[in-house]
Structure formats: structure tokens, C-alpha cells
Design goal:
The protein has a domain of about 190 residues: FAD/NAD(P)-binding domain (3-Layer(bba) Sandwich). It has 12 helices and 20 strands. It has an 8-stranded mixed β-sheet with strand order 6-5-14-15-16-13-18-17. Strands 8-2-1-12-20-19 form a 6-stranded mixed β-sheet. The chain has a 3-stranded antiparallel β-sheet with strand order 3-7-4. A hairpin with a 5-residue loop joins strand 9 and strand 10. Helix 1 runs parallel beside helix 8, helix 2 crosses helix 8 and helix 8 runs antiparallel to helix 9. It is globular and about 70 Å long.
Length: about 425
């Protein structure tokens, strides 16, 4: 097997987007994925316009994305008493050139996998292959140690290694051996789906409650004949985190009754949260976690991307979106500087500092920070939001967040394509 290829450690959304990018521009690659078989994991996910733009450039247009999700129309925050704090249009309705998508994460993942296999062949992905270590060679290439589930190991060589192996990244652990442990600030999330009537618009993202006690609700499918949509919900509660995460797993299925009582008071004339929760088949519990930023994502011919580089709280719905953007920027820098450490260094210079700031911004509540302000000023209960937080202040707060996250409307609409049309690696 040729050793001038790029080895991609991890076949998640970021890793597969990178592989599709490499196929598009003609860069040799191989994806190494831990799972023995690909399967749809996760529940809801939002893909922001800056990332949807990149999907469109890969040929994953609205006709394709409509099969696994729905175009978002609105983003809204609601106080404890059920009254609107802030709302804005999203995607095409807001004036973006590209939509925002709410989708089933597992279905999106499998769409990317099927597309890659169709375009690049089954040999482009090696399953049951977990990257364990890397070894930088004097030649400038990199050798990668890979483990199988049966305990056997082998090595593979490449020009570059991209660690797309998630928050528990082995590549990152070697690159930054003294990094702090995974950070948990005390918030627990329970996730699930339910068939329900859409709220507010046919596709609204709703954040309801306070900064420490809230629900996030949005549809991830178009309405069926009965008007019902598959609705993703996330129930969040902040607890004492002094003793750390005491569970034996980071993600597990739990009965609805084990947590629904925390949301008994979330009943309004337009939504009954307890009723919605109990109509769900199951819930999945996991802590809201991230990692402290690191000074660099690059070690010579090795780079990190996605959650391996910048695992962040999902408060801004942009973790996966940033992984998609990472992939495209890596493709662009390789087009410019070749399969070299200099290309990875340019990628690092373009994104590491900026996205590290976004990690910390999301840790401090991200766009839900408006609920922090609301809680400080009135405990989440109000008659007229203008007397608590003016429209000017709300708009300024959200404008700053969208600029930091890379999807401010004017800047994104006017930006040149990350990868020029028909560009090819040579």
C-alpha cells in the first residue's frame, strides 16, 4: 500500500468529511475506524450554514440533506415562565445563502459513510482499526500503530496523520501527554426523541428555562401526513461537580422516570414538557463535557481536528459544524502547500486560536448566555423582556457569538469558497 497517503484516524462526521474532501481534490487517503461495523449513533444535531456551505461544495445539496433532516427556520430562547426572550430567523429565512439543518446525527453519519464508499470505494475505509500511537520518521513521514479488537496490532505509514478520533483521542493524548482530564462543569444532559407537533414554526430550535435548568427542543424531520415530526429533545440540569463524574460510562440509556421529575414545572399553554418526555421511548444520559484548549493542534506531520482538537459544550450547536470546516480548511492548505507539515501548520495558524476561544465561550454558556443575564436580573420570570434585556442588548450579544462561531451572515455570504471549484492536488 502506498505510503504517500494521508491517514485519517476516525470515521466520524469530521473524518468522513475530510475523506470526501480528499477524494474531491485528489489526495490519497485511508480512514481508520475503530468500529467493526458502521452504525448510526447519536440523536439530534444542528449543522450551521457555514458547514452546510461546505457540504454543498461536496455535492451534498438540499435534495440530499433533506433525506436526513429538515431546514431550520427559527432559533428561540424562552424564559422559565414560557415567555419569549429572544428569537431570530435561521438559514435561508435569515438571509444566508445556505440553509441550516437539524438532522438525526446517526443518519447524517451514515449518509457521509455511504457517499464515501460510493465515490472512493470500500477500500477507502478500514474498520476494526483503532489508532494507538504514531512515530515521526526522519524522512518526514509518519508511521501509525493500529490495534484490532482481537488484540492484534500492525503498522501503516503515510505522509500525514490527521487525528479525527474524538474527545478521547489517542493522537491528542500522545501529542499533549500532560493535558488535563476531560472537563465536566456539572451539567447533565438527557437526550431522546419523540413524535410530536412542531412548536412555533415548522422547524424551530427552542431553548427553554435557565442557564442551569433547561430544555432544548427541535424537529429533525419534516411533518408526516398527520402533521407530526420526529422531535429531538435535550433535558439539562447542573449539579455539584466537585466529586467529578461518578458514572462508569459517558453515555447510557436510562428510564424516563429517572429524570423527568426535574422538569415537572415546565408546563405551559403551548407545551407540556413532562407529557412530551413520557411519550418518548427512552432517554440517554451523558455529562456536558469538553477539553481545555491546547496551544497547538499540530506535531510535525500530525494534526488534530474535530473533537480531538476542540471538544466543546454543545450550547452553540457548532461542534460538528466546526469539524466540517476543519476538514475543508485542511484540504485547502494541502492544495496550497502539499502533503507537508507546513500545510498542517497553516491550518493550525488559521483555526487553533480562534476555535479555542470558541470552546471557552461555549463553556460559559455560549448563546444561552442570554439566559444567564436573564436569571441574574429577574430569575427567569418577567412580563416584558424589554424591561429586563433590551432588544439592542440581545441583538449585540447574539451578533458577537455568531461572529466568533464563523456564521455571521454578511461575512459568510461574502466569503470565497474554502476550496476553489475544480481544484485538484498535484
Amino acid at each position: 500500500m502506498q505510503d504517500n497517503k494521508v491517514i485519517i484516524a476516525g470515521g466520524g462526521i469530521g473524518g468522513l468529511t475530510l475523506a470526501l474532501t480528499f477524494h474531491q481534490i485528489g489526495v490519497p487517503f485511508l480512514v481508520l475506524e475503530t468500529w467493526r461495523t458502521m452504525r448510526p449513533l447519536g440523536v439530534g444535531i444542528n449543522i450551521q450554514p457555514n458547514a452546510v456551505r461546505e457540504f454543498f461544495e461536496l455535492g451534498l445539496t438540499s435534495e440530499v440533506l433533506d433525506t436526513i433532516g429538515v431546514s431550520a427556520k427559527e432559533w428561540a430562547l424562552v424564559g422559565l415562565n414560557g415567555r419569549e426572550v429572544y428569537a431570530e430567523k435561521r438559514g435561508l429565512d435569515a438571509g444566508y445563502k445556505w440553509p441550516q439543518y437539524a438532522a438525526h446525527r446517526g443518519e447524517l453519519h451514515m449518509l457521509l459513510y455511504r457517499t464515501l464508499i460510493e465515490r472512493a470505494g470500500a477500500e477507502s475505509v478500514m474498520l476494526d482499526a483503532k489508532v494507538d500511537k504514531y512515530f515521526k520518521q526522519p524522512s518526514g513521514k509518519v508511521d501509525v500503530s493500529v490495534k484490532r479488537s482481537d488484540g492484534s496490532q500492525f503498522q501503516i505509514s503515510g505522509s500525514l496523520l490527521i487525528g479525527a478520533d474524538g474527545i478521547h483521542s489517542a493522537v491528542r493524548a500522545q501529542m499533549h501527554p500532560d493535558q488535563p482530564p476531560i472537563h465536566w462543569g456539572g451539567a447533565i444532559m438527557w437526550r431522546g426523541t419523540v413524535r410530536a407537533k412542531p412548536l412555533r414554526t415548522e422547524s424551530s430550535f427552542i431553548g427553554l428555562g435557565t442557564h442551569k435548568h433547561r430544555m432544548v427542543i427541535y424537529p429533525i424531520s419534516k411533518p408526516e401526513a398527520d402533521g407530526m415530526v420526529l422531535t429531538n429533545w435535550i433535558a439539562e440540569l447542573t449539579m455539584d461537580s466537585n466529586k467529578g463524574w461518578l458514572e462508569d460510562t459517558w453515555f447510557k440509556e436510562v428510564p424516563i422516570q429517572s429524570f423527568a421529575h426535574h422538569f415537572d414545572d415546565f408546563r405551559y399553554d403551548w407545551l407540556d414538557v413532562p407529557s412530551m418526555l413520557y411519550k418518548s421511548d427512552c432517554g440517554y444520559m451523558n455529562p456536558m463535557i469538553d477539553r481545555d484548549p491546547v496551544a497547538t493542534w499540530v506535531d510535525g506531520p500530525v494534526a488534530l481536528m474535530g473533537d480531538a482538537a476542540h471538544a466543546m459544550y454543545p450550547t452553540g450547536s457548532n461542534g460538528a459544524s466546526q469539524a466540517i470546516v476543519d476538514a475543508r480548511v485542511i484540504g485547502a492548505t494541502i492544495l496550497k502547500l502539499g502533503l507537508t507539515p507546513d500545510a498542517l501548520k497553516l491550518y493550525d495558524n488559521l483555526l487553533c486560536k480562534k476555535v479555542s476561544e470558541l470552546v471557552l465561550r461555549n463553556r460559559s454558556a455560549g448563546p444561552f448566555g442570554l439566559l444567564d443575564i436573564l436569571n441574574d436580573r429577574c430569575g427567569g420570570i418577567f412580563e416584558d423582556i424589554e424591561t429586563v434585556i433590551s432588544l439592542e442588548e440581545r441583538n449585540e450579544f447574539m451578533g458577537k457569538y455568531k461572529m466568533a462561531a464563523g456564521f455571521a451572515i454578511e461575512a459568510l455570504n461574502e466569503a470565497k469558497p474554502t476550496i476553489p471549484p475544480n481544484a485538484k492536488f498535484s
